[in-house]
Amino acid sequence: MDTANLTREETAARSAAVTVHRIRVELDLTGAPERARTGFPSVTTLEFDATTDTTWLDFIGEGVQRVSVNGVDQEIVYDGARISLSGLAASNLVRVEAVGTYSRSGEGLHRFHDPVDDETYLYTQYEPADSRRVMACFEQPDMKAEYTFVVDAPTGWEVLSNQSPTHTDLGVGVQRVEFAPTLPISSYITAVAAGPYSRVDGEWQRGEQSVTLGVFVRRSLAPHLEAEEILEVTRQGLDFFTDAFASPYPWGKYDQIFVPEYNLGAMENPGLVTFTESYLSRGAATDAQRAARANTILHEMAHMWFGDLVTMTWWDDLWLKESFADYMGAHASAVATRYHDAWVKFAASRKAWAYQQDQLPTTHPIVADITDLEAAKLNFDGITYAKGAAVLKQLVAFVGDEAFFEGARRYFAVNAFGNTTLDDFLVQLSAVSGRDMSDWSTAWLQTSGVSTLWTETDPEGRQILVQTDPRPHRLRIGLYERADGRIVRREQRELDVVGERTELDLPEADLVLLNDDDLTYVKARLDEGSLITVEESLSAIDDPLARALVWSSLWNATRDGELAAQRYLAIVRSHAPHESNIGLLTGVLANAIYTIRHYVSATSREEEQRTWTDGVWSALVSAEAGSDAQLSWARAFATASAFDDEHHAQVRALLEGDAPEGLVIDPDLRWQLLGALVTTGHADLADVAVEEQRDDTGDGRTAARRARASRPDAAVRRDAWQSAWEDLALSNDHLDAEISGFRAGGRRDLIAGFDAEYFARIVQAWDERSIEIARRLVIGLFPAGDSLDAVDAWLAANTAAPAALRRLVVEQRDHLARDLRVRAAQD
User: Fold this and answer.
1) Over the range 500-514, which residues count as b (16 or more CB within 10 Å of their CB) and which as e?
2) In principle, which of 26, 336, 475, 539 could form an S-S bond with 43, CB 3.0–4.6 Å?
C-alpha cells in the first residue's frame, strides 16, 4: 500500500478518534541560501486528545530524528510518509524532530535562487496534502488546530506566516520570528514565506475594523508590481465581502505575495495569500490581464469565508469552496471593481474549461466521489471550479440574489471554524428561500454531463426547444435584429425549461440566443439563420456578453464537429480584428490556433496555417498603436510563427526593433518571437545565448532552456526527452520548458519515435516522482499522433495501474479521439 495516498475512510476514522487542539511548528531556514543543503530542521509539537492508544502523523521528508509522546521518547516507526504513534493517553503532547526537504516542484517548501540578485526566496504551497512536507501533522481538512509558527531565518529577510509576528529575536546574521497563534484552521492552508522580498504596505478600514495590508514580491520584480492597483482591488473586495457576508474579515492581517515557479494561479492561505508571478507583466500588459488578476484576488478573498472560515469535511465537497470562490470572483469583479465585464470573459472562456472537462469520459458530479488524495489532487478541475460557478449563477437566478446571500450568511454563522458537507449548505439555503433544494441538488450537483439546447420545427410546424441530458433551467431567449449597421436586442423571453422538448412561440429574428444573459450552464447552438447572421455581422453585436455567448457557441460547435473548422476560422478572420473586448479577443485567438493544430484535416492544415499567419500579421499591422489589441495580435503572431515560417523576416525585424508604432517588445514577447525563429530553424544557439545575456533572470533562463530544446533537430529533441524523464534536478518550470521545447512547432516527424517509450515509462514515473511532476510528464509528453492503438493497448494491459494515472491517460486519449473524429468530419 502507498501510505502517502491517504484514503477517505482511514482519515475519517482518525478524526473520529483524535481531537487536535494546538500545533507549534519550528522551522530552521538559516541554511536555505546554501545550495548544496537539501533539507531543513523541522520540529513539531502537537497537543491533542485521543480515544485510541495508537494513530499516525503524516510527514514526508529526509528523515525523522526523534519522536516523544507525553515526554517519553518512542522508537521511531517511519515509512517515509507516516510516523506511527503508540501509548497515547486521553490527552497528549507529541514532539517530532525531523528534517524536511527543500522543494523544486512547487510542493511543500519551495526554494528559488534568483539569478538577478543571487538571493534565495522560499514559500510554501500545500493544497491538498503537502504541509506534511514541512511539518508533522494530521493531513486532512477536518482536523483543525491553532498553529503557532516559529521561524529561524537570515537577518534582513522578510519572514511571513498566516499571523503577524509577536516577537523577533536578533542574533548574529540570524533572526528568530515567532508568530501569533492562528484561529483554528486546516493544515493545508497554513503558510510560511521567507526571503529578501520587497514589500508595499497598506491598510483597509471599515468602521472599527482595521486590517493591515501587505504586497510582496522578489526584489528583481518589484518594478513590475503595480502594487497600488492590487491594493485598490483588495480594499474593494474587503468592502464587498464584509457587506455581502455580514461577517467581518476574521484573519487579522491580509498579506499577498507573488512567488516564482508556482504551480497554481493562487492559494487562499488566510493572512498570507500566494499568487503566481505570471500575474505580473515584465513589460506591457492588457486590461484583460489585469482583470484576470483582479478576479483571482477576489476569488482568493472569497475563500477567507468559503474554505478557510468554513471548510469541507473531505475533498468530496471541494466545491463548497472552489465553486463559490469562482462565482464570487466574477461577481465581485463585476459589481465592486472597474472590471464590470467579468461575466463576459467567464461566459466565453472560463465556462469553456468546464464544457471540455464535462465531456470527458472521466467527468464527475460537482459533488464528487473522492476516495483518496490522488483523486483529490486531480479534482481541481473545470467542473469543480467553472461548472460549479456557472451552476451557482443558475441557482441565483432560481432563488434570487438576496436569498442566496442570506443563505451564505447563515451558513457562516452556524459553521464558523468548522467543517461541512453539501447538506449543511442546502439546509440554510432551503430555510431562506422556502424551497426544497433536494431536486435542484440532484439535478445540478450530484449528476455529471452538460446539456445541449437547440431549436427545431416539428412535423406540425411548431417551434420546439430540444434539450439533451435534460435538466431544469431558468433561462432567457434573446431576439436580435439588424438596426443601423448594428445587431441589437429587440426582445427577450424568460422561461423555465425542464424536459427534453419545450414548445416555443418566438417571432422571427435575425439572431436567436437561447441562453441570453448566460444564466445557466448549457451548450446553446445557433440555428442556421442565426449562424448566417453571425458570419456576416458578429462584430456588429452591441452587447459584449451576447458576443461572448456567440463566440462560445461557435467554439463548442467546432469542438463537437458540428461546425466545420474552416467555417469557424473564416468567422474568426472576419470578426476577431474588430473585437473590442480584449478578454474575448485573447480567448478567440487561442481557440483559432488550437483549431488549426487539432481540428483542421491534415490535407488542409498547411494552407489554413498560412492563411491564419498572414491574417494575424495583417491585423497586427492594422491595430491601433499602443492598444491592447495590438499587443494581443503581436503575441498571436509569435505563436503562429512557430508553425509557419513565411514571416520569419518580420519576426526577426520585430526582435531588432522594427516594430509597428506603439508596440512594446517586452522580454516575454522577445522570447516568444525568438522561440518561433529557433523552432523553425531561423535562429540558433548563438541567438539564444545573446538573448539570455540580455535577460539573465529566472524567467529568461527558463525561456532560454525552452528555446534550446525546441531546435528542429532530432538529436536535440531526444535530449529534451531524456532530460524531462531523467533529470531529477529540474524544477517544475524547467521541466515544463523541456516538454514545451520537445513538442515545439508540432513536429511529429521529430518526436513520433518516442511514442512507445512514453507508455513504457509512465507507471514508473508515477510511482517514483511527486504527483505534480508525474502529472506534467504524463500530460505534457502524451503522444498525440494519428492513432489510438498505442494508448488503447496500454489501457488494456494496465488495468491495475493507479486510478489517478489511468484517469490522466483516459483523458488524453479522449482529447486525441476528439481531434481525430473532428478532423475526419472535415474531409
Assistant:
1) eebeeeeeebbbbbb
2) 26
Q: State the average pLDDT over residues 323-330.
A: 97
Read off the C-alpha cell for 498.
425542464
Sign, CA torsion 436/383/343/527: negative
Write the burial class of residue 782 (CB in 10 Å: 0-12 exposed, 13-18 middle, 19+ buried).
Answer: buried
**Under DSSP, is residue 416 helix (H, G, I), strand (E, B) or coil?**
coil
- Torsion-angle region of residue 824: left (phi > 0), alpha (psi -120 to 50) or beta? alpha
pLDDT the model gives residue 173: 95
Q: Catalytic residue, from 119, 158, 300, 608: name it.
A: 300
Contacts of 70 (CB under 8 A, 6+ apart): 87, 89, 92, 93, 94
What is the distance between the alpha carbons of residues 535 and 553, in angstroms, rounded to a whole number? 13
> Closest Cα partner for 695 from 665, 650, 738, 717?
665
d(CA 543, CA 79): 60
Q: Cell 420546439, residue?
A: 464
CA pair distance 165, 94, nearest whole angstrom: 24
d(CA 465, CA 467) in angstroms, rounded, equals 7
Dig out the grid coordinates for 225 from the structure: 508590481
Instruction: Indicate if the pLDDT at residue 51 is higher than 80.
Output: yes
325 and 272 Cβ atoms separated by less than 8 Å: no
- The alpha carbon torsion through 566, 568, 569, 571 (nearest 10 deg) reads 130
Q: What count of other Cβ atoms lies within 10 Å of the Cβ of residue 602?
A: 10
Exposed/middle/buried for residue 432 (C-beta within 10 Å: 0-12, 13-18, 19+): buried
* Euclidean distance between CA atoms 569 and 546, whole angstroms: 20
> Is 747 in contact with 785 (CB distance < 8 Å)?
no
Q: Is the pLDDT of residue 2 over 90?
A: no
Q: In what order do the strands lie in the sheet with 486-497?
A: 486-497, 473-483, 511-516
What is the model's pLDDT at position 827? Answer: 72
Q: Which residues share a beta bridge with 199?
A: 216
Contact 216, 199 (CB under 8 A): yes
Whole-number pLDDT of residue 772: 94
pLDDT above 70 covers what percent of the chain?
100
pLDDT classification of 493: cutoffs 50, 70, 90 = very high
Calculate ∠ Cα 289-291-243, nearest 5°.
155
The model's pLDDT over 381-397, given as tens digits with 9 standing for 90+, comes to 999 999 999 999 999 98
Which one-letter amino acid corresponds to residue 329?
A: G
How far is it, in rounded angstroms, from Cα 481 to Cα 602?
Answer: 38
Cell 515567532 belongs to which residue?
Answer: 178
22: Cα within 13 Å, side-chain hemisphere: 10
Tell how strand 452-457 and strand 523-524 pair up.
Answer: parallel
The amino acid present at 227, given as its one-letter code, is: A
* Catalytic (active site) residue 277: no
The predicted structure's pLDDT at residue 407? 94
Average pLDDT over residues 696-725: 98
Who's near 68: CB < 8 A, 6+ residues apart? 74, 94, 95
C-alpha cell of 577?
480584428
Beta-carbon contacts of 680 under 8 Å, excluding residues fewer than 6 positions away, are 641, 642, 644, 645, 648, 712, 745
Neighbours of 133 (CB within 10 A): 26
648-658 per-position pLDDT tens digit: 999 999 999 99
For cell 487542539, the residue is 21
Q: What strand order describes the sheet that includes 158-161?
A: 108-114, 119-125, 192-195, 158-161
- Which residues on neighbouring strands pair with residue 240, listed in sequence order? none
Neighbours of 642 (CB within 10 A): 22
CA distances from residue 411 to 183, 311, 561 in whole angstroms, order as listed? 18, 11, 44
What CA–CA distance (Å, rounded) separates 258 from 27?
22
- With 70 as the cut, is the pLDDT of residue 1 above it? no
- According to DSSP, the residues that pair with 474 across neighbouring strands are 496
Single-letter code of the amino acid located at 378: L
- Report strand pairing: 209-217 vs 158-161: unpaired
